[in-house]
Amino acid sequence: MSDLILYAIPFFLLSMGLEFAALRHAAHDHAHDPEAPVGFELRDTTTSLTMGLGHLAIAGAWKLVVLVVMAGIYSVSPLTLSPGDWWAWVLLFLADDLAFYCYHRSHHRVRIFWATHVVHHSSEHFNLSTALRQDWSPFTTTFFWLPLALFFEPWMIFLAMSWNLIYQFGLHTEAIDRLPRPVELIFNTPSHHRVHHGSQEQYLDRNYAGILIVWDRLFGTFEPEGERVRYGLTRNIETYNPVKVAYGEFANIWRDVRSAETWRDRFGYAFRGPGWRPDR
After folding, report:
1. What is the radius of gyration, based on Cα positions, of the chain?
2. Is the pTM of this model over 0.70?
3. Rounded mean pLDDT, 198-222
C-alpha cells in the first residue's frame, strides 16, 4: 500500500500545482464573489503536507503489524478466494469500500475515534492539499479491514485500500463543480465530499463514502450540496502546529474525563459522539 501511495506522490504534487493555478485564476475573476473558491493558504497547506508526511511514516510502520495479523487470519481461513478469479476483485472492491464507509462513519460518531480523524477536518480550506492532511494515530483503522483477511490475501487488501485513498485525493477540490447526473448518483464526487467537510448543521456527519456514494444513499447519510459550504469544524482549532493538530483532541478528551464526576460521564466523554455532555 505504501509503495503505491509513494508512486502517486508526483501525481499529487502536479495536481496541486494545476489546482492552485485554476483557483488563483478563478479568485482573480471573482474577487468580490462570496461563492468564489476558498483556495490555498500557505501555512495551512504547509501543515497539511507535514501531516501527510508524518502519516506515511507512522502508518507505514504500523502496516507491518497489520500485515502479520492479516497473514495469520488468512492462513487459517477456510473461506479464501483466489486472486486469479475476476469476480474476487469485484467482491474486494465492494468489501473494501463498505469497510471504508463503516470506518469513516464510526470515526465521526465515537469521540475517541474522532480524535484521530478530526485531523483531516481541521483545515478551513478545501483543496487537494487537504486530502494529504492525515492523522498520526492510524491504529483504529485496522479493525475495519481485518475481516477481509478471511477472504483475500493481505496484499490485495492493501492494494484496495490504496486505490480507494488515491481516488479520494481527487475529491478534495473546489475546481470541479458537479459531474454528470449518473456519476453523481453512483460515485462519490467533489460535490458530495465538499458536503462532508462542511461545518453547517445540515452537513454534519453526512456523505461518508469512499468511492461509491450508494452506501450513504442506502444507509440514510446522504446530503446533496446546497448552501455554500463553510469548511472546518464547528469550533476551529486555530493552530498550524502539526503536533497540536495531531493530538489536540486527545488532550481535550483527557481534560473532560479528568473533570467528570462519574464513571458514566467519563465513558460518555470518551465513547459518545463529539460534543457530548452530561444531561445535567
Report:
1. 19
2. yes
3. 98
